[in-house]
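User: Quick sanity check before I run a bigger batch. Here is a single chain. Can you write out its predicted 3D structure?
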Amino acid sequence: MADLTVPLQVLRSRRRPDRRFGRTLTSRAVLVGCVVALVSVLVTALVAIPLAARAVEDRTRESLATEATVVAAALRATPRPAGDQRVIDALRKRDIALYVIRRGTADRTGLPAGVVDRVAGGNAFSGRRVVAGVPSLVEGRALNNGNGVVLTHPVATGIWREVGRNLWLALLAGLAAGVLAGVLLGRRLARPIRNAATAALRLRGGDRGVRVPVEQPQEAADLAHALNGLAEALATSEGRQRDFLLSVSHELRTPLTAIRGYAEALSDGVIAGDGVAQAGRTVLDEAARLDRLVTDLLALARLDAVDFPLTPLRVDLSAIVEETAQTWGPRCAAAGVELVVEAPGHAVPAITDPGRTRQILDGLLENALRVVPAGAPIVLATRADGFIEVRDGGPGFTDDDLRVVFERGALRQRYDGVRPGGSGLGLALVHGLVRRLGGQIEAGHAPEGGARFTIRLPQQAYQPLTSA
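Assistant: Done. Predicted structure follows.
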């Protein structure tokens, strides 16, 4: 596995990333963490402060009720303790005000008349009222003969302010936690992306040995697998392209060498008499071979072009197969190979370009005749269901061959020097032509022992493909 460490100056020379705060994944994770912490603190405060205020108020009310009961009991025993200044001072230190009602009248102003009337009427009172302009908790206890005692305590209005003063501590702690979590999370999430970006830059620069470490989370692992697969596919594709160019250059060089050799011999007068005609025929054959190779290269290059000429017509596949057999019969017989034609005995309609269909069959037959030994058959068949088959009794393909049979130069590289081969373009060109005609082709094993190619062409009107 190649090292992903790339000097920073190399990356900067290729791109200028925007490092402004808020544009990177880490900074955005920090912002999100801070916002989440801020919202959490505020929501907690909005929920907790009312609960705290209610709890304080409940405790204050319980304490005030107890104090009112104690003071009322002391006053019943003797009027003196309730009015004793020391008791009043002790209650005042706890922010409790004491009101004594004698014969229906409070000893001080500020107490609501409703409270005074209720207590003077012999009833207890517990609730919230405004006492001397201050919202207060009020606890009243009745004595006898229109007498009573009332204790008041201001409502805890300062809880919000108190909590608010302390809220900044929690807010600061939450923001700090958010920043820390955002930095850690952002760096963790950004690391696979940075590795992928670095790997992509190196792939763009031609380094096909680069690999991205596979690490969690699953999305990052999927990205790493995808980039690693891309690197492997590019390496394989470029390797095949190099091998293809080497094989094509060899195929071009062979006829050129023959042509040049005979041309030099003729120029130097080495060949004379009847040898001149023979040399001319050899040069012509090699030139024709060179022309076929160049034609195949041009056709293969133009397959994906929009202007690739196609003329789909309604044709009879049986007639095209018969015409092809008449042309290839003598060539097969000269090589000692039997050409067998199988036809259903009736027309097999299809919509295709007859010239391109004939080019497909010619390519498959030429490929078969090159490898089929003398005495073995080549079968050219038309089936009633609209399929065309080209089968042979040659060496055939292995299952591994079938996976790359239509790739340019793949089989030529694999069997170079083992069996007769051409330029490695024929089957790739056949596959491209069938695809452009809107059909399908597959390779397999023939019952005759060799290779089988099955072609399915459209039987209804179709739109020819314009690109890969």
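The chain has a mean pLDDT of 78.

User: Great, the batch can go ahead then.
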